[in-house]
Amino acid sequence: MRPRPLDQPPASAARFTRCPSPDEVVRGVERVAAARPDLCRLSVIGSSRSHRPLHLLSIGHGTRSVLVVAGAHPDESIGGASILALAEHLAEGGEPALRDTVWHLLPCLDPDGARLNRQGPPPGSMTEQYRGYFRPAVAEQPEWAPSVPGAEPMPETRALLDVIAEHRPRVQISLHSTDVGGTYAQLTRHAPGFAPAFAASAQAAGLPVETGALDAWRWASAGPGIYLLPPPGTPERPTAFPENAHRSTWLAPHAHGGMTAIVEVPGWASTRLADPAAHPDADDASARAADLLRGLSAELDTHLAPARDALPPADSDAASAALHAGLDATLRVCGPLADSWDPRHPAFTPMPGLTQAHAASLELFARRIALRASAMLLHLLDRSLRAGVTRTQTSHEAVERLLARRCGDYAASFAVRPVPVAAQVGHHVRCALALAETSAAV
């Protein structure tokens, strides 16, 4: 059975003009559950490291389960809006999605991290988006932590794995977003028929389809923007990254015959990530990206050194500890990642078949990683100023200017355009419905 061409946005997606806060997401799923007690059950499946409840909204009745997870990365807040839109669509009678199917919706997998990120109206500029920014170290990301050697077990991870073991979802759909680029999906197993539905949805949302995603560089293609996990033992991520998809929570549904799909949507669209043409000089493109990342990292070091002593100590509170860990982990990966891209360096990892989209992805990662580090440094300086540490004022102003310049350079280089929140949400919801339908047909 082929999925319906889901090229029309659910009405529930159209109302979103901004991403809801974590508390607003919880109140939203509570309202959905209260409005349809015949169809919906709201439960608490565990708690976060800071003892915040992890909610699960279950909608429908049947023998088959679908699990949708939002907020695995706390800087990707669009997932909360998408979960609410999907919940409202299903509760309003979104058949055939409910046919013999229970949808389990996890509104926010990392509520602690989500509260460390910017809340409020949609950013009018990329600089606004990166104010009050937090991205945890990989060892503190619930989906990835099991794959990082030596990482402490996370209660959020345990809660997710328990849900998968109890409900045995035919498909787990993890809703993600990027700052700049296009849309793409990573699948741990083939989903026949999903590619045309994905393409139709991307077109309806006005999203470029990303054909050169660095996250899926070595994954096989099942159609434009659709990537399939390679076999165990095959390199699947840049060698500088500590995580491994085969040891992540993405593989947990396989124990019960299921699969996982990761759906990415961009906040700022760029067609550079969609150009499949061969690059005329792969080594030059790789070397340029390596030099860019090294240069951006070195520049940030000149701002970090004088500010270090004025930052809130990492052991002062949980938020400061998380921000320090995120900043330090981001900085640590810069050198090894640049070396792995550089044909002049012994650690170079060859990248055969480099396309224009791949070259753009290398530049994008260089800018994104350095920008994340800059933003978390500014976040720490913000906290110092609020605590009355006035000697941070000079560093704060300098890093604020640095962040604005880097965001401007990033936006200009990729000729970005903002993607309306409703378009991002609509694409997430349509893809979730299509994945549920294709997995039912397998």
UniProtKB/TrEMBL annotation:
Query: Residue limits of the Peptidase M14 domain?
Result: 18-257
Q: Which biological processes are named by the entry's GO terms?
A: proteolysis
GO molecular function, a single term:
metallocarboxypeptidase activity
Record bears the keyword Protease: yes
Keyword set includes Metal-binding: no
Q: Tell me the InterPro entries matching this sequence.
A: Peptidase_M14
What GO CC terms are in its UniProt record?
Answer: extracellular space
Q: Which cofactor does it need?
A: Zn(2+)
For this chain, the family text in UniProt reads:
Belongs to the peptidase M14 family.
Quote the protein name from its UniProt record: Zinc carboxypeptidase
**Species for this entry:** Actinacidiphila rubida
